[in-house]
Write a structure and sequence with these properties.
three-stranded antiparallel sheet; 165 residues
Length: 165
């Protein structure tokens, strides 16, 4: 875009004129724009692996599990996404051979997603690329990233993402 002004700052100025000050509006608009920027960058880095960031997260989660498999419900819970999104993600990963579905031996009706050896290799290579690009966050130092995490954690706690203490 390379605009000669900050459109979010301009919107905040207009907001103040019409509705009064709202640093929350400017902050949330900035967060939403940052999300768009990061997803575009990360998805570009992951495109050679036929992955989106959402699919990458699911593969990483499976690679972290002790058996390399998890029930679909547990994947949704850990990634904080709707069951339909998990089903779609696992289906796409299965279609390209990075995951396989199998019956859950502990639950006759349940399904497990299991990462394949090809999936583990893709995680290894894709993670190296993401780490080299600092997950699109190279404009920030380590202290700033820690502060950002802490600031956003407050929002996640307030939303009930997890219990604190």
């Amino acid at each position: 875009m390379n605009l000669p002004f900050d459109p979010i700052e301009r919107a905040a100025e207009q907001w103040r004129v019409h509705f009064g000050p709202s640093p929350a509006m400017a902050a949330v608009t900035s967060i939403m724009r940052a999300h768009q920027i990061l997803i575009a960058q990360l998805d570009t880095l992951l495109k050679p692996y036929d992955l989106t960031f959402a699919r990458y997260e699911a593969l990483v989660l499976l690679s972290f599990s002790s058996r390399g498999s998890l029930p679909l419900s547990k994947i949704g819970e850990r990634l904080m996404v709707h069951p339909t999104s998990v089903t779609n993600t696992v289906h796409r990963l299965e279609r390209v051979g990075l995951v396989r579905r199998m019956p859950n031996p502990r639950d006759g009706r349940g399904v497990l997603a299991e990462i394949t050896p090809a999936g583990r290799e893709v995680v290894r290579r894709a993670t190296a690329d993401l780490m080299a690009a600092e997950f699109g966050m190279s404009a920030y130092g380590e202290d700033e990233l820690s502060e950002m995490f802490d600031l956003l954690r407050v929002l996640r706690v307030a939303a009930g993402d997890f219990a604190t203490g």
